[in-house]
Each structure stands twice: as C-alpha cells, then as structure tokens.
Amino acid sequence: MEQFYQILTWIGIFAYWLLIASVTVRVVFKRRAVGVSLAWMMIIYIVPIGGVIAYLLFGELNLGKKRAERAREMFFPFQSWFQCLTDCPGHMPQKMSDVAKPINDLCENRFGLPGLVGNHLSLKSSTDEILRSLIADINNAQHSIHLEFYIWYPGGLADEVGVALIKAAKRGIRVRILLDSAGSMRFFRSHWPKLIRGAGIELVEALAVSPFRMFLRRLDLRQHRKIVVIDDNIAYTGSMNLVDPAFFKVDAGVGQWVDVMVRISGPTVSVLNCIQAWDWEVETGQRFLPPLPTCQIPTEDEPEYDTVQVIPSGPGMPDDIIHQVLLLSIYQAKKSIVITTPYFVPSEHLLHAMKGAAERNIDVHIVLPDKNDSTMVEWASRSFFSDLLKSGVHIHRFHGGLLHTKSVVIDDTHCLIGTVNLDMRSLWLNFEVTMAVDNLEFTHKLSQLQQSYIADSEPVDKEQWEKRSVRNKFGERFFYMFSPLL
C-alpha cells in the first residue's frame, strides 16, 4: 500500500510539473512584452494552482468564439469603408503638418484609416456644460441617436439624458445604446432598462459578465469607449462616462470626477459612427455601416492645417496602434509634453520615451490625481516616480477631485484626447478610442485647461520623495511587479 501511495505522489508531482511547464511554455510563446510574461510567470510560480487558473481566466486576449469570428469577418468590410475616406475631399495629405503626416501614414498603413480636415471641435470641460449640451442636441435630433459608454450611472443630470432619449424615441427618432456590462452594472440593475426598452430604444449590454462565461471569454476585457453620434452630424467623445459626478462614487473618498468631452462636427463624425457600428456588430452581429461623410473642401479662410485622426483600438483591430501613436507623438516633441491621466502604469517603451524627452531638455509634465479609486494602480504608479523625477520629469498631484481627463499636449501645437489611460489595460486590452488633433486653437484651449489642473496641483519634490518611508517603498516595489498586468 505504501508503494501505491508513493506512485500516486510521483504521478501527482509529474502532473503538477507538466501543468506548470505547459502554462509557462504558453506564456512564453505568446510573444508579448517581456515584463508581462515575467509578471505572469511570477504569479504562476508563487501561487501555483491559483496562478494557473488566473492566467487561464485573464492572461490571454480571449474575446469569445462568436465575437472573435465576427471580428475577423468584419475587418475587411470595415477596412474598405475606412479606405473610401481617401476619396473624401476632407482627406488632404498635402495640407497636413509635419506632425500630423506621420500619424496619418501610420494609421493608413495599419488599417486604412486616414486623418481628415474640415472639422469643427468644441472642448467641454465641466459636467454641467457637457450633459446640458448633450441634452440639447438630443432634443434637436431629427432621425438617429447612437450612444456608447463604459459607465451609465443613474442620478442627477444623467437621468435627464435618459428622459431626453425616451422623449426622442417617442417622437420617432431611432435610438441605439451600447453599454458595458461591468461598468454599467448599477444601471442594468435599476428601473432604467425597462423604461428605455419600453420606449422602443435598442439597448444592448456589451460583454456580459457571468460566471458561466469565465472560461469562454476574458472577463476583464471591457468596452471602454465613450461615443455619442447624433444625426450623423454631431459627435461627442472624450473621457467622461454618462454620470453626474455629484452622484457617482460619492463615498470613494477621492472627490468628484473631473472630465472633458469634445463636441465634433465635420467628416470625423462619420468615422466615430463607423467605430460605433463596429462595436454594435461585434456584440449583436447586426451591420449598420454608416454613409460616408459628405466632405466639403475647406475654404481659404479656414486654417491650413487642421487634421483630426481617429485611432480606435481593441480586439480585432490592429495591435498596439494607440501605443505606437503615443510613442510617435512623444518622440516628435521639440519643446514640451503635458500629460493628464487618472491611471498611470506606463509600458517600458513609454517610460523610456518620457525619460528620454526630459533628458533632451523637453519640458515634460505629468498630472495625476492625488487620490485614486484603484489602490493597486495608485501604488504601482508611485513606483515610477523616482526614475521620472531623476530624469527631470515634473509630476503634479491634482487636488481638485479624481482627475479623469486623458490628454496629451505636444509643444502647445497638437494633442491627443480620448478614452485611453496610460496603463496596460487601455493600451493593449480594452476597446478604446483617441483622437490626434492638429488644430492650434483647440490645442491652446486644451493646454489652458491642463495648466488650470497644474495650478490646482502639488508638485512632487524629488528630494522629499526620496525620504518617504521604507514601508511605502516596499509597497511600491511589490505592486510594481504586477504593473504589466494592471
């Protein structure tokens, strides 16, 4: 009997070794960033069985069989739609500046999506202004309203948006709403879905969260885009979810969320509408490719260089595209870089790019919220401060609430603005969208807003930072090990 148990023990040890070896080989052969692979192997070895289960659940970009098949089948029809934009009079490569042209070339070569001129952009920087502008445009809608958000949280002005949508549907406007299942969990548990569907509005729950799906699709893959398109003429995108900060996470201890949205008219509206159509088809299988924009040739009194490049990312779309655009923008900087982001866990490439910019005398500023709603991200973020400060990067901690604005301004002349955080989740996992804007007037307004954030912030002093406690340093290093996964 003793020999039998010894055999069982050796079989168990061999099975355990085979499991760990198989998962390790799988991690290595995925050919991701080295830091990501090392972080997963550390988890697998430190927490053997739990680490393997965690990797199978969260370690690979698994969209689910049906969605993955749809995404593969959709890519070429949507790429063809994007490529048709090159025939639009708003596609004027000869009018693009030296900074817009490389970004345009990258996006055209990766998936056929060009930058377009002839847009009109309005920066909305307060919750009241954003939501009341959105309500007014909904009230004036003539035929269609498409909304897509990560979070819809009931309460305050967000409820007034819901009422406006119901009224629009009752007067014959076609309304489609796509909301992320996890981000909008509170909404889906409220009375609002019944009211909205009862008014004839199409409401779809994207990437439904269910324990039965955990081995079929990666559960932390989220639909993080925020896009509104009204009548194919007006669009909104930016960092703000459909929430009233006075009612959202009021007990989190981080203050009210601070966000921006951009109201857009012009050919870029159709591009954002096409991205919404992509997300709708991935989730439902229904295709609603929008009409191509009716571009007008810019008149002589309009700015010569005024390009908007939309850059979407996510499963089914070209890998790493927003990360590439970020790196390209930073390397093009000649004078200054100002970045605002709520979650700061940069890749090694972004970290080196920011440090290298500061070391070549570029004035680099990073503005982060002083208090964060994610403890792990907060500690991981701090682990990068020392290296950045030593390189001459200025770090500011914003005291006016949870700074949720995601923006990058280069040389006060061009900018990036959208839904993308500077963390691994946004850059490699979620469905995201950002815009590269080469418009001097708009960039100046965004730059002024960033400076108002800095004025309401406390700079991190390099000498004082090095005096922080050993306990804090240990916490930072511990969470740094998991930073490639955050």
TrEMBL record:
The chain crosses the membrane at residues 7-29, 35-58. It is an enzyme of class 2 (transferase). It is a multi-pass membrane protein. Residues 219-246, 399-426 form the PLD phosphodiesterase domain. Pfam families: PLDc_2, PLDc_N. GO terms for molecular function: cardiolipin synthase activity. GO terms for biological process: cardiolipin biosynthetic process. Keywords: Cell membrane, Lipid biosynthesis, Lipid metabolism, Membrane, Phospholipid biosynthesis, Phospholipid metabolism, Repeat, Transferase, Transmembrane, Transmembrane helix. It catalyses: 2 a 1,2-diacyl-sn-glycero-3-phospho-(1'-sn-glycerol) = a cardiolipin + glycerol. It is found in: Cell membrane. The active site is at residues 224, 226, 231, 404, 406, 411. One of its GO terms (cellular component) is plasma membrane. Its EC number is 2.7.8.-. Catalyzes the reversible phosphatidyl group transfer from one phosphatidylglycerol molecule to another to form cardiolipin (CL) (diphosphatidylglycerol) and glycerol. Belongs to the phospholipase D family. Cardiolipin synthase subfamily. ClsA sub-subfamily. This is Cardiolipin synthase A. It comes from Photobacterium carnosum. The gene is cls.
